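Section 4.2 – Deliverable D4.2 (structural model, holo form)

The reporting period included a commitment to supply a predicted holo structure for the target in complex with zinc ion. Inputs used:
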Amino acid sequence: MPELPEVETVRRGLEKLIVGSKITDVQLPYPKVITGDSQQFVTGVLNAEFEKISRRGKYLLLQLSNQHTIVSHLRMEGQYSVEPSDTEPYKHTEIIFGLSDNRALFYNDTRRFGRMILTTTGFEMTEVPSLAKLGPEPTEEQLTLSYMKTIFAKSKRPVKTFLLDQTQIAGIGNIYADEVLWQSKIHPKTPASMLSDVELIVLRENIITEIKRATDHHGTTVHSFSNVFGEVGKFQNELEAYGRVGESCLRCGATMIKIKVGQRGTTFCPVCQVEKK
Ligand SMILES: [Zn+2]
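Output (structure tokens):
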């Protein structure tokens, strides 16, 4: 599943490729990709230009020149690509925005979980309630230590599960949760409220740094992620915990193990990341 670094990579690609382009035609091979009335969606985007591409958590916001914004969530495998306008739809192409410059923006999704919804610009939060509920972005400015202390103190959930909760902190998924817990030497099942102030300081720094580093590497390619240019992310070569079950811990040499925490596969080092009891 694309996490924040992957979605930010897609955002940057779309910003370079489609801002200023006008939507002259919409084909909808898979109308279910649209939440709400798909015909209204088509009417609402036709003849508008892509004006600005922004992101909140794992949501993309494609702002149009006509007071509408498309809110897009890629979920598991959603992908955008920009193609010459005479390109035939792929097997899993769900929507094609024909552009005025002989190109087309394709949205492809092998798992068909991704969704788009047309909102009124400025009212995205009201019209997409899950957007309004998102926690702060994992950045130095927005994810403050005092906020971390407040939210962690309130929860007895395992820290791994807690980190995946988008209403607490936006943008962290399974990959980066495993990474930051390994870096912080925190056992994934530790109840959030049991983390010490020092552990929270370390965890916060690791979250901010890791998300930034992964974004700088254009994200991680696991399964089919690629950016709008069809390039794959490079961060999988930098991963220290995720996907390393059975391999040696890069810090202490112990064998990394995998368990389920809240139904999610979780890889960690049983020596460096000791469970608090
Ligand atoms: Zn270790």
